[in-house]
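Dataset card, provenance and construction

Sequences and ligand SMILES were collected as paired inputs. For each pair, a complete structure of the chain with the small molecule in place was predicted and serialized as structure tokens. The example below shows a pair involving 6-phosphogluconic acid. Curators did not alter the output after generation; any descriptive sentences attached to a record were derived from the structure itself.
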Amino acid sequence: MVKVYSYKDNDAIAKSLAKFIIAQQDSVLATRDQFNIAISGGSLVNILTKGLLDNKDINWSKWVIYFSDERIVPLNDKDSNFGAFEKEVLAPLAHHGKIGPTIVTINESLIHSSDHSTDAKIAQEYESKLPVNGLDLVLLGAGPDGHTCSLFPGHKLLNEKTLNVASLDDSPKLPPRRITLTFKYLAKCSTLAFVATGASKQASLKDVFENSESKLPCALVNKLANDVKGGVCWFVDDAAVEGIQIEKSQY
Ligand SMILES: O=C(O)[C@H](O)[C@@H](O)[C@H](O)[C@H](O)COP(=O)(O)O
């Protein structure tokens, strides 16, 4: 089942997404002591900052945070997804004296600026740190071209059937070298939640939601809805889904 939750702006999304994440957190922590979540880059980090930072219901010390994809750059590089999350969320958390989450990043000692041959090793090592049975929640972005994680339209990784985490060095969006969760691994996770905002997403989301044959990566994630027990949902703003024939509600 794919659900679409739609709001007028990022502040409203941030509030509702926080409520959703806390519900997932609470149901997992009722049964075990660790909440495994993956986040993505882009504007999602800013929405998480708004919704989570001063939120007393987040049990940060029980969170283990992974990345749905990461750029193969040093962690302090402006293009690093970890770097953005550290600056926006982790540093302010530490500043408030809170016990922070555990973060699982790529091993930057394996990055060689000109030699890409260790990129597969970075992916392999990242895969070895992931829970074998999948994550509790994966927060996904959606690019204007319909990509998600670093799974791009028409890319050979859309057909990856063996690896849970793969590397690529031909990302059409810079920077070119990345690692990404694959569909194989996303299918093992409990809940998949997209956050997509802005009119630049309209054309690809029209294809995702109105064309049952769509091959866009975001559409292929929607097709996993029956495999993942918590389903697939979308948190969108009105601009992203204007004119698109879908049933919308609010969480
Ligand atoms: O690695 C990347 O290329 C980006 O992080 C990307 O995957 C992002 O998540 C989407 O393009 C959505 O970005 P916005 O939310 O900023 O529109």
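Derived descriptions for this record:
The chain has one domain: 2-241.
The chain has a mean pLDDT of 96.
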